[in-house]
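Quick log. Single chain, no ligands specified.
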Amino acid sequence: MKKILFFVGDIETQGYFSLQIAEAMKAMGHEVFIYDLSKPWGSTEKFFRFFEKGNTVLINFNFHGMSGEEYFLDENGTMMWDALAIPSYNIVVDHPMYYHHFLEKVPQNYHHISIDRKHDAYMKRFFPEIINGPFLPLAGTKLYPDRSNVPVEFRKYDVTMVGNYCVPATFEKYITRIDDEYTAFYYGMIDDLLANPWKTVEEVAQSHLEEELGEVPEEEMKKVMAALTFIDLYVRYTFRGRAVQELVDAGIKVHVFGDGWDLLECRQAQNLMIMNSLDSVGCLKKLCQTKLSLNVMPWFKDGAHDRIFNSMLNGAVCLTDSSIYLDTVLQDDVNCSIYTLEHMDRLPELAVGLLASPERMQEMADQGYETAQAGHTWAHRAQVLHELVENGQ
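-> predicted structure:
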């Protein structure tokens, strides 16, 4: 079996995902090495003792280890993975438009794994020279053993939101940086996405550019997309803030765990319970104490978010918007409660109705647990990766 290298020590959540996959790989018989990016020199020495030529692969997230870290480059700028002929399997948990600068200089035996099928289509369109796939949705982690979740009615928090917030106005400096014509163009795209939230940024960019300029060459479209990340951030944080506002202003207490929530303006701010930002385990512990876990998809239109499966596996009812992929997994009022971004004003009614019926919530929480446990843990994703690395695809 292949020996597998994983990273920790940079983005905490991605390190946590790596550890979950690593444990599952060990259970399948793989030898694994956990490289601590915060202690590179000591980790490198230990890695060389672990490394086996022709039988070692790298599984990483978001270009860790291939984003210019000097300790992975030789004096000629050659990446360690190329020098040692180590295949890399990079799971990218954001839209590829954020990573064009890395995608232009990936290692030789590089595999790009998308967590959204729209992202996968984007990669095949703009980076066909790169090995892409398979689609691998994010997964969840169960903190406690089977069937030991606290019953819903005895949980501490009515509604929680685990995640950070950023005021959309933060991105206005990018919208207005050129001139009035560009500003109007960017706001036109934003307004289109806010009014039609099932669209992707690339779909809206394509239609608006063609309306302005006619047919746009693919290479030009590729360059434009790399410069539109602020559109994605503006829209996703608008909806994230709005979801919490709708609940808070309707008199529902929402406990938020993450940074930036003190900047969210609410009419009934006394219902916004701002708590500390937490690491992955801390977030899971809060979900174990949550009745209703709010999720707003970060513009993944054909994928999933770990917040959904984490909520289910830890006994909370997930209140979420959906996606093309999630429509095949989630059943409204059966294993979760689904709202739409077009009708966020209905969120309070959904939440109040659920909180008033603990028996109904318990049934949904139980169904949600079974759904996630049956197919959406990191062990399930590790099985896909195991087959991928063993077959050398």
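The longest strand covers residues 3-8.
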